[in-house]
What we know:
By secondary structure, the chain is of the alpha+beta class. It folds into two domains: 3-76, Roll (Ubiquitin-like (UB roll)), CATH 3.10.20; 87-154, DNA polymerase, domain 1 (Orthogonal Bundle). The protein contains five helices and five strands. Strands 2-1-5-3-4 form a five-stranded mixed β-sheet, with helices on both faces.
Amino acid sequence: MTVTVTFELDGESVTVETRPDQPLRELLRESLDAKQVKSGCESGRCGVCTVLLDDTVVKSCLTPAPKVDGRRVRTIADIGTDEDLHPVQTKFVDNFAAQCGYCTPGFVLATVDFLENTDEFDREDAKKAIKGNVCRCTGYEKILDAIETLDEETDADRDSPLGTE
């Protein structure tokens, strides 16, 4: 048995058949060739499959694909490009917050969600925001440094925590 879902993926409307029990991660990677959504633990603990569903962080390995019908899904591909990085991506680069890069999309998406929903924060708040993501390379300090520099640079403009309209 399959169901048809129609949703927005990175700004484009898509219609696709899926199984009722199919994880969103599998649908994105296998049916829609969205390889930027990584596979990891398959249990929601590592965060490499993170996407934004209606601008809220979700683990796509735990999200049933039919739940996205009529909704908006954003992957790291919708956040910035090589030519025009998102401010979060820029700060990750500037602060050497990525090493192998496998976990980076999940951290970036979690940070984007956190900053879009937070007016003021400290390092402890940033730790909580990225808690659902695992990195085996960086030790998290440089990631937290990157997030803190975003806060420092936007203190004057709290209406737009990412420095964009």
